[in-house]
Design brief:
By secondary structure, the protein is an alpha+beta fold. The protein has 13 helices and 18 strands.
Length: about 425
């Protein structure tokens, strides 16, 4: 048997509505390939998806149910791929994520070396951990050397002082630990985590949008997430606990029907356009009847449209308020709309009315061999996890995030990594 030519990893989108998995085959030397060649060198060889259970707002609320669903999705994907995986990359919206913007400075003499950069990173990480449980991301936004002129790669430059502007995203540890325990019981280790809005943007933004400025709005089932990119860096992220499931519950309550029937009606007949629906009728199952052979009554499609429109307006107005509070709505950033609810008829026009700019409805981009059945707006997060797992980024490396107060004591580091492996 010759040397192995490929590695395999899995990426998971662990959501409140569904759990999706891609298994990726990649060259064993992928780290040596240029950016674009990495994308073209991979293949999606296994996929799986099941309705979610035991998870709400990205947080485990029923361990046994969540563990069972995640395990089933992983096993189904492994069967599809014909390969057993041991590492997964996952999205995360649990733990009340928070954003922190900091600046850090260090004096040096001569040239900026990797040692200087590592020392600057360590200073930043130690400071953040003074106030936070866990660092999800630490993204240097820019550097400056002896001046206020931005520098994006300072290695090899000469100077006396270096300053780093940093975006750190932190989270509370217990909810993340619970998700780690569920995956441990599925006999896989976490290869990496990405904040859900970050992953969604990676999955559906094109390179020019990341460079010139874009805001990604992902309207999922239980959450709506926001992220903003500029100069190829994540500069803002937020999670709002409202989404498409609220629309489904509104429909179910108004028409007194089961949630499953409300979801079907939303997907098949739902629209944000009230005009033109006044004379249309839709069929509503009569609750209490035998659902295997139900009877129906008719209702106005305009009533359905009003219910959907009212909740979508609330979601988009909340998004608008969050973005205005950050000043991002005063920019010329392009608006990108994705997530399962972005498939609703008429939501593009409603978004334009409320956000005062026409959005682009975005599906996942730039992934080879992506199955057609899993290429719609609902799959931006799982596609983004593929990008996050295989492509280089400018974040402070994960191994730097865990060294903080442990110095160079090898035995202490080994104990720490053993603890991380056990708990995550």
């Amino acid at each position: 048997m010759g040397p192995r030519k490929h590695n395999y990893i899995a990426v998971l989108d662990i959501g409140s509505f569904k759990v999706s998995c891609f298994i990726i085959r990649m060259p064993i030397d992928i780290a040596s390939l240029p950016y674009e060649e990495r994308l073209s060198s991979i293949s999606i060889v296994g996929t799986a998806e099941l309705p979610s259970a035991g998870i709400r707002h990205g947080t485990i609320v029923n361990m046994l149910a969540a563990e069972s669903i995640i395990n089933a999705v992983l096993k189904n994907a492994e069967i599809d791929a014909g390969y057993t995986i041991d590492h997964v990359w996952i999205n995360s919206s649990a733990g009340n994520p928070k954003l922190h913007y900091h600046s850090y400075q260090k004096s040096f003499d001569g040239f900026v070396s990797q040692q200087v950069m590592d020392s600057l990173y360590e200073k930043a990480v130690m400071d953040i951990y003074e106030k936070s449980d866990y660092i999800l991301h630490a993204v240097p936004l820019q550097y400056m050397i002896d001046s206020d002129e931005p520098v994006y790669n300072p290695i090899g430059m000469r100077g006396n002082d270096i300053k780093m502007d940093l975006l750190a995203i932190t989270a509370d540890l217990p909810p993340l630990r619970n998700l780690g325990l569920a995956l441990e019981k599925c006999h896989v280790e976490i290869g990496g985590r990405a904040l859900s809005p970050y992953a969604s943007a990676l999955g559906c933004l094109v390179p020019s949008e990341m460079e010139t400025g874009a805001i990604c709005i992902d309207i999922g089932a239980e959450t709506t997430t926001l992220s903003a990119f500029k100069n190829n860096n994540l500069i803002f992220a937020d999670i709002i606990k409202i989404g498409g499931a609220n629309i489904t519950r509104d429909i179910a309550q108004y028409f007194s029907i089961p949630l499953s029937s409300a979801e079907n009606i939303k997907c098949e007949k739902g629209t944000c356009n009230i005009y033109g629906t006044e004379h249309e009728r839709i069929q509503i199952p009569v609750i209490g009847e035998n659902m295997s052979s139900p009877t129906f009554e008719t209702a106005s499609r305009a009533d359905l449209a009003r219910i959907i429109c009212a909740r979508c307006e609330e979601i988009l107005e909340t998004v608008m308020a969050r973005l205005q509070a950050t000043g991002l709505m005063n920019t010329q950033y392009k608006i990108i709309l994705t997530g399962g609810t972005a498939q609703l008829n008429g939501i593009e026009g409603l978004s334009q009315k409320i956000l005062n700019t026409k959005p682009r409805i975005a599906c996942p981009v730039r992934l080879p061999s992506m199955p057609q059945t899993m290429s719609g707006t609902a799959y931006s997060v799982v596609a983004g996890m593929v990008h996050y797992a295989i492509l280089p980024n400018d974040e402070i490396p994960p191994e730097k995030l865990f060294k903080r107060n442990y110095g160079n004591n090898d035995s202490t580091l080994k104990k720490m990594f053993h603890w991380l492996k056990y708990n995550f």
